[in-house]
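Hey forum,

I'm writing up a methods section and want to include a predicted complex as supplementary material. The small molecule is zinc ion. I've pasted the protein sequence and the SMILES. Can someone with a working setup run it? I'll credit the forum in the acknowledgements.
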Amino acid sequence: MLNSVFKISFLYLLCFLWSSSINAQEISFLFMGDIMGHGPQIKSAWQENKKQYEYSEVFNPLDDIISSVDFAIGNLEVTLAGKPFNGYPQFSSPDELAVACKNSGMDVLVTANNHSCDRKNKGVIRTLDVLDSLNILHTGTFKDVKNREKDNLLVLSKDGIRIGLLNYTYGTNGLPFSDPVYVNLVDSVLIKKDVTNAKNKDLDKLVVFVHWGYEYRDFPNSYQKKYNRFFQDLGVDIVIGSHPHVIQPMEYSKKNNQEFLTVFSLGNFVSNQRAERKDGGAMLRLSFKKTDNNLLISRKEYIPVWVHKFIEQEKYHFQILPCARPIYNEKYFSNKEDFQKMKTFLDNTRAHLNTNNLAIEEGVPYGLVKFKPITILQSQDPELRSLAIEQIKTKRRKRRRK
Ligand SMILES: [Zn+2]
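Reply by user p_vandermeer:
Happy to help. C-alpha cells for the complex are below, copy them as they are.
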C-alpha cells in the first residue's frame, strides 16, 4: 500500500516536472564525435537478403538519448559520394549511413573535416545533396559561394532562443577543392569575419565545431590551445572539437556571467578503430535556459559511448553503446572479452575526464534532459527506476513526433 502511494505521488511529481518544463524557455543539444566509415563498417551494413545497405542497428542503442534533445549534432567524416564505396583512406559511404543518422534523431551533421574532399568537388556536392534530401541540416562545406553566404552560419532556434553554429577544419589531407566548392578552413581572418557577422544576427550563443589537433593524443596541442583562446577572445561561447580519434578534456568557465565551454575532442562516435582509447568517445549533452533575458547553461555533462563490434550469424556487426548503462553488463555480451574491453574504455575515460575536465561531469546515459531527474534515477528501487525512464521516454518521444 505504502509502495503504491509512493508510486502515485512519484508520478504526480514527474507530471509536475514535465508540465513546468513546457513553459520554460530552454534548448538542449547533444554533440557527437567522428562518424567514420571504414571498410568493415560498410561491409557490415550490407544486408544480403535485402540486397541493400542498412545502418540502423549501429545507432539503435542511442535512439532515446539522441531523440530526447532539441538538436543532436555529429561530425560526418565521410563523403556520401556514391559508388564505389570505400573506407580508409578516401572515404565514401552508402547514403544509408545518413538515413540511419536521421532515423536515430540526429538533426545536424557538420561536414568540414580532413576527409571532406576525399572524392573531390563532386563528393562534396553529392554529400550535401544527400543531406538536403534527408532534411539533415549541415554546415562547414558548400556547393558554391552563394550557398556559403546563405548557409555558413546555421541558426538553430527554439522558443525564441537562437543558437548559431559554425564549422571549420584544419585541412583536407592535401586534397584540394576548387571553385565553386568551398570548405571552411581554420583561418583566423576568415573566422574573425564569420564570427563578427554571426554576432550581428541576434544570437543568444555561438558554437564553433572545429576539426583540429594531433591524432591519438590525450591532450590538446598548442595549435588547439591557441585557437581556443582566439575563439574565446572573439566572443564564441562553445567550442566543440573533433579529429584526434581519442577523447581530450572538456573545460567550462564563467566570469561575470560570461560562460565559455570547450571540448577539445569528443573522440570517435563510430569507427572500426579497435585499439584502446580509440574504440569509443564521448557525447556532450548541453542545455541552455533563459531567465531575465539572459541565456545560461543549465546542464553540461558527458556521456561515454563505446563501439561494440561483434560477430553474429557469421557476420560483423557494429553498435554504439551508452556503456554506463547497467544493462551492458557481462550477460549482454556473447564474447566476454568485449565486456572487458568496454569496461577498460569506460574506466580510462572516467579516469581521464574526471581528472582533467574543468566543471564538466558525467551524466546519466538516458534520454532525459530537463529538471534533474538524476536523483530519481539513482533511486535504489529498480522498479521505480525503470518506471521513471519509461515515463519520460514516452513523453519526450510523443512531443518530438508532433
Ligand atoms: Zn579527422
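Some notes you might quote in the supplement: Residues 26-370 form a domain with the Purple Acid Phosphatase; chain A, domain 2 fold (CATH 3.60.21.10). The chain is about 35% helix and 30% strand.
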